[in-house]
Amino acid sequence: MHDCLNVDEIVRLLVSGLVACGWKETAVALACCCKKFEDPVLGVLWKEQKRLDVLLATLPEGVWDERHHDFVFKTMPTGAEWARFTKYCRRMRELELEQPKELIPSNVLSVLQLRTLNEPLLPNLKSLELNKSTADIVPFIPLFLSHMTTNIEIGFADGSSAVMVASMMINLPKLCPHVQSISLSPLPRDPAITNATSEILLNCNLDALRFFHVDSSLTEEARKVVFQLPNLSGLWTVFTEPIPPPEVSLPNLTSLDIEYHHDHAWLEGFHGTTFSKLTEVTFHAEPHEVGAFLEAFEHFALATSASAVLSHFRFHTSLAWSPSYYSLLGFKQLIELVVEFSCDDGCSSWLDDEILITLAQAMPQLEILQLGKAPCQVPSNVTVHGLIALAHHCLKLTKLCVHFQTDSIILALSNQTVPSAQETHLPREDCALTSLQVGAIPMPQHHTFSVFLVLLRIFPRLLNIEYVDEGWKWVDATIKLTGQIDTFVHRSISTLSSTLEVEAAEGTL
Protein backbone atom coordinates (compact mmCIF):
# COMPACT_ATOMS: atom_id res chain seq x y z
CA MET A 1 0.00 0.00 0.00
CA HIS A 2 1.22 3.51 -0.80
CA ASP A 3 2.60 5.48 2.13
CA CYS A 4 0.04 8.24 1.72
CA LEU A 5 -2.71 5.67 2.37
CA ASN A 6 -1.05 4.05 5.40
CA VAL A 7 -3.99 2.93 7.53
CA ASP A 8 -2.07 2.94 10.84
CA GLU A 9 -1.01 6.55 10.31
CA ILE A 10 -4.56 7.60 9.43
CA VAL A 11 -5.91 5.85 12.53
CA ARG A 12 -3.34 7.56 14.80
CA LEU A 13 -4.14 10.98 13.35
CA LEU A 14 -7.87 10.36 13.73
CA VAL A 15 -7.52 9.25 17.35
CA SER A 16 -5.23 12.17 18.24
CA GLY A 17 -7.73 14.58 16.71
CA LEU A 18 -10.66 13.09 18.63
CA VAL A 19 -8.87 13.27 21.98
CA ALA A 20 -7.55 16.78 21.30
CA CYS A 21 -11.12 17.95 20.65
CA GLY A 22 -12.30 16.42 23.94
CA TRP A 23 -14.13 13.48 22.37
CA LYS A 24 -12.45 10.80 24.47
CA GLU A 25 -15.66 8.78 24.82
CA THR A 26 -15.94 8.57 21.03
CA ALA A 27 -12.34 7.38 20.78
CA VAL A 28 -12.96 4.71 23.45
CA ALA A 29 -16.13 3.58 21.66
CA LEU A 30 -14.16 3.17 18.42
CA ALA A 31 -11.52 1.14 20.28
CA CYS A 32 -14.21 -1.15 21.69
CA CYS A 33 -15.78 -1.66 18.27
CA CYS A 34 -12.66 -1.99 16.13
CA LYS A 35 -9.41 -3.76 17.07
CA LYS A 36 -7.51 -1.43 14.75
CA PHE A 37 -8.28 1.52 17.04
CA GLU A 38 -7.47 -0.19 20.35
CA ASP A 39 -3.72 0.38 20.56
CA PRO A 40 -3.71 3.97 19.20
CA VAL A 41 -6.52 4.97 21.60
CA LEU A 42 -4.76 3.41 24.59
CA GLY A 43 -1.52 5.10 23.58
CA VAL A 44 -3.05 8.58 23.37
CA LEU A 45 -5.13 8.26 26.55
CA TRP A 46 -2.25 6.92 28.63
CA LYS A 47 -0.01 9.75 27.50
CA GLU A 48 -2.44 12.09 29.28
CA GLN A 49 -2.79 9.85 32.35
CA LYS A 50 -0.74 11.22 35.26
CA ARG A 51 -2.08 9.32 38.31
CA LEU A 52 -0.42 6.31 39.89
CA ASP A 53 -3.62 5.08 41.56
CA VAL A 54 -5.27 4.76 38.14
CA LEU A 55 -2.31 2.71 36.94
CA LEU A 56 -2.55 0.42 39.99
CA ALA A 57 -6.25 -0.07 39.31
CA THR A 58 -5.36 -1.91 36.07
CA LEU A 59 -4.32 -4.87 38.24
CA PRO A 60 -7.12 -7.42 38.86
CA GLU A 61 -9.41 -6.53 41.76
CA GLY A 62 -8.38 -9.69 43.61
CA VAL A 63 -4.83 -8.35 43.90
CA TRP A 64 -5.49 -5.00 45.57
CA ASP A 65 -7.99 -3.29 47.82
CA GLU A 66 -8.80 0.39 48.31
CA ARG A 67 -9.37 1.46 51.90
CA HIS A 68 -10.00 5.08 52.81
CA HIS A 69 -8.49 6.12 49.44
CA ASP A 70 -5.35 4.04 50.15
CA PHE A 71 -4.24 1.08 48.05
CA VAL A 72 -3.33 -2.18 49.78
CA PHE A 73 -2.06 -5.33 48.08
CA LYS A 74 -4.00 -8.41 49.19
CA THR A 75 -1.81 -10.83 47.24
CA MET A 76 1.31 -10.62 45.13
CA PRO A 77 0.54 -10.20 41.40
CA THR A 78 1.15 -13.33 39.35
CA GLY A 79 3.56 -13.33 36.42
CA ALA A 80 0.72 -12.92 33.91
CA GLU A 81 -0.91 -10.14 35.94
CA TRP A 82 2.40 -8.32 36.26
CA ALA A 83 3.11 -8.65 32.53
CA ARG A 84 -0.26 -7.06 31.74
CA PHE A 85 0.39 -4.31 34.30
CA THR A 86 3.81 -3.46 32.84
CA LYS A 87 2.24 -2.94 29.41
CA TYR A 88 0.31 -0.03 30.88
CA CYS A 89 3.39 1.16 32.77
CA ARG A 90 5.24 1.54 29.48
CA ARG A 91 2.50 3.83 28.16
CA MET A 92 2.77 6.47 30.92
CA ARG A 93 4.65 9.65 30.01
CA GLU A 94 3.90 11.89 33.01
CA LEU A 95 3.37 11.22 36.71
CA GLU A 96 2.04 13.72 39.25
CA LEU A 97 1.51 13.00 42.95
CA GLU A 98 0.20 15.85 45.10
CA GLN A 99 0.20 13.92 48.38
CA PRO A 100 2.22 10.73 47.73
CA LYS A 101 1.98 9.35 51.27
CA GLU A 102 -1.79 9.78 51.41
CA LEU A 103 -2.37 8.15 48.01
CA ILE A 104 0.21 5.37 47.84
CA PRO A 105 1.46 3.78 51.11
CA SER A 106 5.11 2.76 51.26
CA ASN A 107 4.19 -0.94 51.54
CA VAL A 108 2.61 -0.74 48.08
CA LEU A 109 5.75 0.90 46.72
CA SER A 110 7.81 -1.86 48.33
CA VAL A 111 5.86 -4.47 46.35
CA LEU A 112 6.34 -2.52 43.13
CA GLN A 113 10.05 -2.14 43.80
CA LEU A 114 10.37 -5.87 44.53
CA ARG A 115 8.68 -6.84 41.28
CA THR A 116 10.64 -4.42 39.08
CA LEU A 117 13.98 -6.02 40.08
CA ASN A 118 15.74 -2.61 40.04
CA GLU A 119 14.35 -1.81 36.58
CA PRO A 120 12.34 1.40 36.01
CA LEU A 121 8.67 0.94 36.80
CA LEU A 122 7.76 3.54 34.15
CA PRO A 123 10.45 3.11 31.48
CA ASN A 124 9.06 5.80 29.14
CA LEU A 125 8.27 8.43 31.77
CA LYS A 126 9.32 11.92 30.65
CA SER A 127 8.09 14.05 33.55
CA LEU A 128 7.90 13.37 37.30
CA GLU A 129 6.22 15.80 39.72
CA LEU A 130 6.01 14.90 43.41
CA ASN A 131 4.77 17.20 46.16
CA LYS A 132 5.44 16.96 49.92
CA SER A 133 7.52 13.80 49.66
CA THR A 134 8.03 12.40 53.17
CA ALA A 135 10.72 10.10 54.55
CA ASP A 136 8.49 7.13 53.66
CA ILE A 137 8.45 8.13 49.99
CA VAL A 138 11.96 9.50 49.33
CA PRO A 139 13.70 6.07 49.04
CA PHE A 140 11.22 5.03 46.34
CA ILE A 141 11.62 8.08 44.08
CA PRO A 142 14.24 6.33 41.86
CA LEU A 143 11.59 3.67 41.16
CA PHE A 144 9.73 6.13 38.92
CA LEU A 145 12.73 7.54 37.02
CA SER A 146 14.20 6.26 33.77
CA HIS A 147 16.63 7.16 30.98
CA MET A 148 13.70 8.84 29.21
CA THR A 149 12.95 11.27 32.06
CA THR A 150 13.78 14.88 31.17
CA ASN A 151 11.78 16.80 33.81
CA ILE A 152 12.12 16.21 37.58
CA GLU A 153 10.15 18.34 40.05
CA ILE A 154 10.16 17.16 43.66
CA GLY A 155 8.83 18.96 46.70
CA PHE A 156 9.93 17.65 50.09
CA ALA A 157 7.99 17.70 53.35
CA ASP A 158 9.34 19.76 56.23
CA GLY A 159 11.80 17.91 58.41
CA SER A 160 13.11 15.63 55.67
CA SER A 161 16.31 13.77 56.53
CA ALA A 162 19.27 15.48 54.86
CA VAL A 163 21.24 12.24 54.50
CA MET A 164 18.29 10.34 53.01
CA VAL A 165 17.44 13.12 50.54
CA ALA A 166 21.10 13.59 49.57
CA SER A 167 21.59 9.87 48.90
CA MET A 168 18.60 9.92 46.56
CA MET A 169 19.65 13.16 44.83
CA ILE A 170 23.18 12.05 44.04
CA ASN A 171 21.89 9.28 41.74
CA LEU A 172 19.67 11.51 39.59
CA PRO A 173 22.21 12.14 36.76
CA LYS A 174 22.87 8.40 36.48
CA LEU A 175 19.17 7.49 36.44
CA CYS A 176 18.22 10.34 34.08
CA PRO A 177 21.21 11.11 31.82
CA HIS A 178 19.10 13.29 29.50
CA VAL A 179 17.50 15.44 32.19
CA GLN A 180 16.71 18.99 31.07
CA SER A 181 14.89 20.43 34.07
CA ILE A 182 15.53 19.80 37.79
CA SER A 183 13.49 21.39 40.58
CA LEU A 184 14.11 20.32 44.19
CA SER A 185 12.72 22.22 47.21
CA PRO A 186 12.59 22.87 50.08
CA LEU A 187 15.86 21.26 51.04
CA PRO A 188 17.54 21.03 54.47
CA ARG A 189 20.51 23.33 55.03
CA ASP A 190 23.19 20.67 55.38
CA PRO A 191 26.67 20.01 53.90
CA ALA A 192 25.41 16.66 52.58
CA ILE A 193 22.75 18.48 50.53
CA THR A 194 25.30 21.02 49.26
CA ASN A 195 27.59 18.22 48.08
CA ALA A 196 24.73 16.24 46.52
CA THR A 197 23.40 19.30 44.67
CA SER A 198 26.87 20.05 43.36
CA GLU A 199 27.35 16.44 42.24
CA ILE A 200 24.07 16.59 40.33
CA LEU A 201 25.22 19.66 38.46
CA LEU A 202 28.75 18.43 37.75
CA ASN A 203 27.52 15.06 36.44
CA CYS A 204 24.60 16.29 34.32
CA ASN A 205 24.69 16.65 30.58
CA LEU A 206 25.29 20.41 30.77
CA ASP A 207 24.47 20.96 27.11
CA ALA A 208 20.99 19.50 27.69
CA LEU A 209 20.29 21.25 31.02
CA ARG A 210 17.76 24.09 30.68
CA PHE A 211 16.38 24.63 34.20
CA PHE A 212 18.26 24.16 37.47
CA HIS A 213 15.96 25.17 40.33
CA VAL A 214 17.49 23.67 43.46
CA ASP A 215 17.02 25.14 46.93
CA SER A 216 20.62 24.65 48.01
CA SER A 217 24.02 26.26 48.01
CA LEU A 218 26.79 24.89 45.79
CA THR A 219 30.45 24.10 46.23
CA GLU A 220 32.91 26.56 44.71
CA GLU A 221 33.59 24.21 41.79
CA ALA A 222 29.89 23.76 40.99
CA ARG A 223 29.22 27.49 41.38
CA LYS A 224 31.79 28.27 38.70
CA VAL A 225 30.05 25.82 36.38
CA VAL A 226 26.46 26.93 36.96
CA PHE A 227 27.19 30.55 36.00
CA GLN A 228 28.83 29.46 32.73
CA LEU A 229 26.04 27.43 31.09
CA PRO A 230 25.19 28.91 27.67
CA ASN A 231 21.92 26.96 27.28
CA LEU A 232 20.52 27.48 30.78
CA SER A 233 17.11 29.23 30.83
CA GLY A 234 16.19 29.12 34.51
CA LEU A 235 18.38 29.22 37.63
CA TRP A 236 17.56 29.08 41.34
CA THR A 237 20.48 28.93 43.75
CA VAL A 238 21.39 29.86 47.33
CA PHE A 239 24.32 31.79 48.82
CA THR A 240 24.52 30.83 52.49
CA GLU A 241 28.01 32.28 52.91
CA PRO A 242 29.69 35.42 51.54
CA ILE A 243 31.02 34.66 48.06
CA PRO A 244 33.24 36.62 45.68
CA PRO A 245 31.51 38.02 42.59
CA PRO A 246 31.15 35.08 40.16
CA GLU A 247 32.14 35.16 36.50
CA VAL A 248 28.78 35.07 34.72
CA SER A 249 27.94 34.07 31.16
CA LEU A 250 24.29 33.05 30.81
CA PRO A 251 23.13 34.43 27.45
CA ASN A 252 19.89 32.39 27.33
CA LEU A 253 18.78 32.97 30.92
CA THR A 254 15.11 33.99 31.20
CA SER A 255 14.50 33.58 34.96
CA LEU A 256 16.84 34.06 37.92
CA ASP A 257 16.04 33.25 41.57
CA ILE A 258 18.70 33.86 44.22
CA GLU A 259 18.47 33.46 47.99
CA TYR A 260 21.29 35.11 49.93
CA HIS A 261 22.12 35.32 53.63
CA HIS A 262 24.92 37.91 53.70
CA ASP A 263 25.70 41.07 51.73
CA HIS A 264 24.88 41.49 48.04
CA ALA A 265 28.47 41.95 46.81
CA TRP A 266 27.86 39.00 44.46
CA LEU A 267 25.79 41.35 42.27
CA GLU A 268 29.04 42.82 40.95
CA GLY A 269 29.65 39.56 39.11
CA PHE A 270 26.62 40.26 36.90
CA HIS A 271 27.90 43.71 35.92
CA GLY A 272 28.29 44.03 32.15
CA THR A 273 26.82 40.58 31.42
CA THR A 274 24.56 40.13 28.40
CA PHE A 275 21.02 39.34 29.56
CA SER A 276 18.98 39.91 26.42
CA LYS A 277 16.35 37.33 27.46
CA LEU A 278 16.12 37.84 31.23
CA THR A 279 12.46 38.65 31.96
CA GLU A 280 12.04 37.46 35.54
CA VAL A 281 14.13 37.93 38.71
CA THR A 282 13.34 36.88 42.28
CA PHE A 283 15.46 37.55 45.35
CA HIS A 284 15.05 36.13 48.86
CA ALA A 285 17.17 38.11 51.31
CA GLU A 286 17.95 37.06 54.87
CA PRO A 287 21.10 39.09 55.73
CA HIS A 288 21.64 41.10 58.91
CA GLU A 289 20.31 44.14 57.02
CA VAL A 290 19.11 44.58 53.45
CA GLY A 291 20.69 47.97 52.84
CA ALA A 292 20.74 49.59 49.41
CA PHE A 293 19.90 46.47 47.41
CA LEU A 294 17.60 48.20 44.92
CA GLU A 295 20.25 50.80 44.14
CA ALA A 296 22.83 48.04 43.59
CA PHE A 297 20.41 46.12 41.39
CA GLU A 298 19.69 49.24 39.32
CA HIS A 299 23.44 49.72 38.84
CA PHE A 300 23.82 46.10 37.69
CA ALA A 301 20.78 46.14 35.41
CA LEU A 302 21.68 49.41 33.70
CA ALA A 303 25.12 47.96 32.95
CA THR A 304 23.50 44.97 31.22
CA SER A 305 20.68 44.49 28.74
CA ALA A 306 18.31 43.32 31.51
CA SER A 307 16.73 46.74 32.06
CA ALA A 308 15.19 46.65 28.58
CA VAL A 309 13.50 43.24 28.87
CA LEU A 310 12.77 42.66 32.58
CA SER A 311 9.03 42.25 33.20
CA HIS A 312 8.85 40.55 36.62
CA PHE A 313 10.72 41.78 39.72
CA ARG A 314 10.22 40.16 43.13
CA PHE A 315 12.11 40.82 46.35
CA HIS A 316 11.27 39.08 49.63
CA THR A 317 12.76 39.55 53.08
CA SER A 318 11.50 38.83 56.59
CA LEU A 319 13.30 41.95 57.86
CA ALA A 320 11.97 45.47 58.34
CA TRP A 321 13.15 47.61 55.43
CA SER A 322 12.53 51.01 53.86
CA PRO A 323 13.48 50.60 50.19
CA SER A 324 14.14 53.40 47.73
CA TYR A 325 11.56 52.70 45.02
CA TYR A 326 12.97 55.43 42.80
CA SER A 327 15.75 53.01 41.83
CA LEU A 328 13.14 50.97 39.95
CA LEU A 329 11.79 53.76 37.74
CA GLY A 330 13.98 52.70 34.82
CA PHE A 331 12.13 49.38 34.48
CA LYS A 332 9.22 50.80 32.52
CA GLN A 333 8.04 47.49 31.07
CA LEU A 334 7.42 45.76 34.42
CA ILE A 335 4.28 43.62 34.58
CA GLU A 336 4.84 42.46 38.15
CA LEU A 337 6.52 44.40 40.96
CA VAL A 338 6.67 42.75 44.39
CA VAL A 339 8.79 44.19 47.21
CA GLU A 340 7.91 42.33 50.40
CA PHE A 341 9.26 43.17 53.86
CA SER A 342 8.12 42.79 57.46
CA CYS A 343 6.02 45.07 59.63
CA ASP A 344 6.19 42.76 62.66
CA ASP A 345 8.45 45.07 64.69
CA GLY A 346 6.86 48.32 63.54
CA CYS A 347 5.85 49.56 60.11
CA SER A 348 8.79 50.34 57.86
CA SER A 349 6.78 51.38 54.80
CA TRP A 350 7.64 54.91 53.72
CA LEU A 351 5.29 54.80 50.77
CA ASP A 352 3.34 57.97 49.99
CA ASP A 353 1.28 59.45 47.16
CA GLU A 354 4.29 60.95 45.41
CA ILE A 355 6.14 57.63 45.21
CA LEU A 356 3.04 55.67 44.19
CA ILE A 357 2.05 58.15 41.49
CA THR A 358 5.60 58.26 40.13
CA LEU A 359 5.75 54.46 39.94
CA ALA A 360 2.34 54.32 38.25
CA GLN A 361 3.42 56.85 35.63
CA ALA A 362 6.68 55.00 34.97
CA MET A 363 5.16 51.49 34.79
CA PRO A 364 1.84 51.60 32.88
CA GLN A 365 1.99 47.86 32.08
CA LEU A 366 1.77 46.75 35.74
CA GLU A 367 -0.63 43.89 36.45
CA ILE A 368 0.57 42.97 39.96
CA LEU A 369 1.82 45.53 42.48
CA GLN A 370 2.82 44.69 46.06
CA LEU A 371 4.85 47.10 48.17
CA GLY A 372 5.31 45.66 51.65
CA LYS A 373 3.74 42.62 53.24
CA ALA A 374 0.05 42.51 54.20
CA PRO A 375 -0.69 46.12 55.28
CA CYS A 376 -0.51 46.76 59.04
CA GLN A 377 -2.49 49.07 61.34
CA VAL A 378 -0.01 51.96 61.23
CA PRO A 379 -1.42 54.98 59.32
CA SER A 380 0.01 55.32 55.82
CA ASN A 381 0.82 58.33 53.66
CA VAL A 382 -0.96 56.90 50.60
CA THR A 383 -4.35 58.58 50.19
CA VAL A 384 -7.29 58.25 47.85
CA HIS A 385 -5.44 60.45 45.34
CA GLY A 386 -2.62 57.90 45.07
CA LEU A 387 -5.14 55.11 44.43
CA ILE A 388 -6.91 57.18 41.77
CA ALA A 389 -3.63 57.90 39.98
CA LEU A 390 -2.76 54.22 40.07
CA ALA A 391 -6.11 53.32 38.50
CA HIS A 392 -5.62 56.04 35.90
CA HIS A 393 -2.14 55.06 34.74
CA CYS A 394 -2.17 51.25 35.25
CA LEU A 395 -5.30 50.06 33.47
CA LYS A 396 -4.08 46.44 33.36
CA LEU A 397 -3.54 46.21 37.13
CA THR A 398 -5.38 43.16 38.56
CA LYS A 399 -3.82 42.68 42.02
CA LEU A 400 -2.79 45.38 44.51
CA CYS A 401 -1.24 45.33 47.98
CA VAL A 402 -0.11 48.68 49.45
CA HIS A 403 -0.54 50.51 52.75
CA PHE A 404 -3.18 53.27 52.33
CA GLN A 405 -5.46 55.47 54.45
CA THR A 406 -9.17 54.82 54.78
CA ASP A 407 -9.58 58.18 56.52
CA SER A 408 -8.65 59.98 53.30
CA ILE A 409 -11.38 58.08 51.44
CA ILE A 410 -14.00 59.05 54.00
CA LEU A 411 -12.83 62.67 54.08
CA ALA A 412 -12.83 62.96 50.29
CA LEU A 413 -16.38 61.65 50.08
CA SER A 414 -17.70 63.83 52.89
CA ASN A 415 -16.10 66.91 51.33
CA GLN A 416 -17.15 65.79 47.85
CA THR A 417 -13.54 66.10 46.69
CA VAL A 418 -13.28 62.78 44.88
CA PRO A 419 -12.17 63.93 41.41
CA SER A 420 -14.55 63.33 38.54
CA ALA A 421 -13.70 61.59 35.28
CA GLN A 422 -13.84 64.92 33.48
CA GLU A 423 -10.87 66.09 35.56
CA THR A 424 -8.92 63.20 33.98
CA HIS A 425 -7.78 61.97 37.38
CA LEU A 426 -10.10 58.99 37.29
CA PRO A 427 -9.24 56.48 34.55
CA ARG A 428 -10.79 57.05 31.13
CA GLU A 429 -11.20 53.26 31.01
CA ASP A 430 -11.98 50.93 33.88
CA CYS A 431 -8.92 49.69 35.75
CA ALA A 432 -8.81 45.88 35.62
CA LEU A 433 -8.18 45.51 39.38
CA THR A 434 -10.07 42.52 40.84
CA SER A 435 -8.10 41.76 44.03
CA LEU A 436 -7.15 44.25 46.77
CA GLN A 437 -5.17 43.22 49.86
CA VAL A 438 -5.90 45.52 52.81
CA GLY A 439 -4.60 43.32 55.65
CA ALA A 440 -4.99 45.08 59.00
CA ILE A 441 -5.69 48.59 57.64
CA PRO A 442 -8.23 49.96 60.16
CA MET A 443 -11.81 50.39 58.97
CA PRO A 444 -13.50 53.20 60.96
CA GLN A 445 -16.89 52.23 62.33
CA HIS A 446 -19.99 53.57 60.57
CA HIS A 447 -17.99 54.39 57.41
CA THR A 448 -17.89 51.04 55.64
CA PHE A 449 -20.48 52.12 53.06
CA SER A 450 -18.51 55.26 52.20
CA VAL A 451 -15.32 53.24 51.68
CA PHE A 452 -17.25 50.72 49.59
CA LEU A 453 -18.66 53.43 47.29
CA VAL A 454 -15.32 55.15 46.68
CA LEU A 455 -13.33 51.94 46.13
CA LEU A 456 -15.89 50.67 43.64
CA ARG A 457 -15.83 54.00 41.85
CA ILE A 458 -12.03 53.90 41.53
CA PHE A 459 -11.88 50.14 40.79
CA PRO A 460 -15.23 49.18 39.17
CA ARG A 461 -14.12 45.57 38.52
CA LEU A 462 -13.08 44.84 42.12
CA LEU A 463 -14.24 41.35 43.18
CA ASN A 464 -12.20 40.39 46.23
CA ILE A 465 -10.70 42.03 49.32
CA GLU A 466 -8.15 40.19 51.47
CA TYR A 467 -8.46 41.50 55.01
CA VAL A 468 -7.53 40.87 58.64
CA ASP A 469 -9.50 43.72 60.24
CA GLU A 470 -13.10 42.46 60.55
CA GLY A 471 -14.34 45.92 59.65
CA TRP A 472 -13.71 45.02 56.01
CA LYS A 473 -15.97 41.96 56.08
CA TRP A 474 -19.10 43.80 54.95
CA VAL A 475 -17.21 45.67 52.20
CA ASP A 476 -15.77 42.42 50.85
CA ALA A 477 -19.13 40.62 50.91
CA THR A 478 -20.93 43.51 49.22
CA ILE A 479 -18.27 43.84 46.52
CA LYS A 480 -18.52 40.09 45.81
CA LEU A 481 -22.31 40.38 45.53
CA THR A 482 -22.02 43.40 43.24
CA GLY A 483 -19.59 41.49 41.04
CA GLN A 484 -21.96 38.53 40.78
CA ILE A 485 -24.83 40.81 39.80
CA ASP A 486 -22.65 42.56 37.19
CA THR A 487 -21.57 39.20 35.77
CA PHE A 488 -25.18 38.03 35.55
CA VAL A 489 -26.28 41.26 33.85
CA HIS A 490 -23.39 41.19 31.34
CA ARG A 491 -24.09 37.55 30.48
CA SER A 492 -27.79 38.23 30.08
CA ILE A 493 -27.10 41.19 27.80
CA SER A 494 -24.56 39.15 25.81
CA THR A 495 -27.01 36.26 25.40
CA LEU A 496 -29.81 38.62 24.38
CA SER A 497 -27.54 40.37 21.86
CA SER A 498 -26.49 37.05 20.33
CA THR A 499 -30.11 35.94 20.07
CA LEU A 500 -31.11 39.20 18.39
CA GLU A 501 -28.22 38.92 15.92
CA VAL A 502 -29.25 35.37 14.98
CA GLU A 503 -32.90 36.35 14.58
CA ALA A 504 -31.92 39.37 12.51
CA ALA A 505 -29.75 37.20 10.25
CA GLU A 506 -32.59 34.70 9.82
CA GLY A 507 -35.12 37.44 9.19
CA THR A 508 -37.32 36.36 12.09
CA LEU A 509 -36.78 39.49 14.17
Automatic annotation (TrEMBL):
InterPro entries: LRR_dom_sf. Gene3D superfamilies: Ribonuclease Inhibitor (3.80.10.10). This is F-box domain-containing protein.
